[in-house]
Model the fold of this input.
Amino acid sequence: MTAHAWPPGRTRAARTRPGGRPPRRSRVAWWYTAPTLLVVALVTIFPIGFSVVMSFSRVELSSSGFSFTDWSTDNYAAVLQSPVWREALVFTVLYTLVSVAVELVLGVLVALVLERLTAARGWLMALLLIPWAMITVISAQLWSYIFNSAYGAASWLLGLFTDEPPVILGTPASAFSAILVADVWKTTPFVAIIVLAGLVTIDRSVYEAAEMDGSGPWSTFWRITLPLLRTTLAIAVLFRVLQAFGIFDLPFVLTSGGPGTSTQPLALLGWRVMFQNLNMGAGAAVAASTALIVFLACLLCLRAFRAQVGEEEVR
Amino acid sequence: MVWRSQRAVTVIAAGLALGLTAACGSGGGSADDDGPVTITWQAAPFGDRSDDARHYLVDAFEREHPGIDVEVVSAPTNVDTNRASLATQILGQASTPDVYNGDVSWAAQFASAGLALPIGDHVAAGFWDKFDPATVAGASFEGTAYGVPLTLDQSFLYYREDLLEKHGLPVPTTWEEVAEQSEILREAGDVDYGVAWQGASYEGLTCVVNEFLAAGGGGLVTADGSRPDVAAPGSRGALEFLGGLIDDGVSPRATTTYQEPQALQAFTGGQAAFLRNWSYAYDTANAAGSGVAGRVGVTAMPALEQGDGTRASTVGGWNVYINPHTRQQEAALTFVQWLTGAETQRLMAERSSTIPTVDSVRNAPEVRELSPVLRASADNDLVSRPTTSPYYTQVSQATYTTVNSMLSGSLSASEAVRRLASDIEAALAGRRL
Done:
């Protein structure tokens, strides 16, 4: 992974210039990666292109298949005007912000603990990765048992403090929190592993120097550890934003978008429009606009982290 | 610009556009072959699950028609996943499955999207006489039938015989009586709740709303299907009553997360005294493992006192459709007509407890006697969902999401009525996503 590719804190001269390899080696690299790139093009770029074309057309379905007519932006107009789409966008953005923030904080904490461990680190990491390795629809089904209002453990536990056991998946706020809990359980270990990889690359001598200068643990964390983790955090945030924005399986299993449409993410909406309503053009427009938004969000993330790194280098 | 895409391309693109992969079947053997032709029948399990109807039906058909082999392909049990899998295959011009079971509410949508063969053009006009005209109309689009009614499902009110007997209560015939009796049974401490039903944000809630509005004297849309009818006084009162069931504690607050299994479980677990569910619930509630086995009664759906006495029950069930790209159209038509013939319908009623779609079979005294569910069905007033619109799916989504919001307290009844009216109008005009 590129976490080590441009370690922060080193001087500009010590870093390899991008594209600085000799041209022949570069050509050989292209040959080696060509088959992979071809497969990626076939299964990723072509379908994306196809659905973009679809999103700009009037799609008519008949027994002889699709026909695309009238190159227009009507599908996008319909999507942008739809209150259902706006609700889905608000949910998806809110969910992405909250879940990524929570997972980042918890992930860093877990990574700091893991770094201190010596003996059982390997075992603990393996244990922590179990939620991450589980297929989400299956873990979501398990969570749905936990949140079930009749026999669920979570409902019972919360019911000890209230008159009546709460219906966790029955109100917008608690359903949101339930999905969040399931997601944090699953993906915090992933963030922790990435952050841990960044932590172990930090030169111990930096800490020793800080200690000699009388820096306490709190200020060492804020002034040394965290700044040196920036690029690692950028990678973690990037991965998480991409995944959180495309969330589908947790709401699909836990709430099917309810109550009402309050937990319906864009991906679930797109699937519904396309494969329940068979409204191919509008469904493609939902998918394409979602891809565009998440792409811009990632660029923004990278820009923000890179700007900070650059600033530090100047100092 | 018009261009027609090729099968493989469309399948890959439609499937991968949202990260799903679609499998695409291959065609069966050619009809010119000497051996028997093979057709595939994609169907989810239906009827009594302990004796798979799909397999005994295929065995019986193959005995009578040695020239045709039928291969069963198991479809997803989730009705929407089932639809998505069929749509991606058939839109991609796959020639299989040749025959498939589809929900009764899909007919207009599948017809307008070219996913079903217009069977009405391929069978004698007299073929349809044996079915209830309402079920044929429900399987038709613009005057042509695209599906053949295979099973007829409807909702019923299930009740605890032992509890009504204990308190000397009659079997209720109105929803108001259900609410009153629930109060008595709850106060006596016999149950936690009165009636369990399906209030989650999904198609099942549309079915409940549809029958409540009809019982109140209104409906989701007007009789001609052109405009929403939810603002009519009858519809509004019915929605308020429905919300009141939860507010008054007659139904659990968790109703907003209940689909069929959860509602059934609240009843079989003894928490609820009454249950609104489909015909399959009778056998399940009386099976081993149910906490109330042997104490379950079934009756027609209740009326609403504000209405005209309609004991409204939403029509559900399966139609059987033919893939328009099948290479075995003759064999497929033969199989479909056999499945929906009187003999087969009788066999299914006897072995799988399905409600026959053929009138003469359903109304035959000896079939009636097969089960209390079939006897109770005589008093149900069947109401269809507005499925003749190709935009029915959008109408239903508008319905269940709005009413689910109302039930969970995010919307008042009058706000819900307003939003329903505008959303259904937009849906009928094709303006809803």
About this structure: Chain B touches chain A through 61 residues (CB under 8 Å).
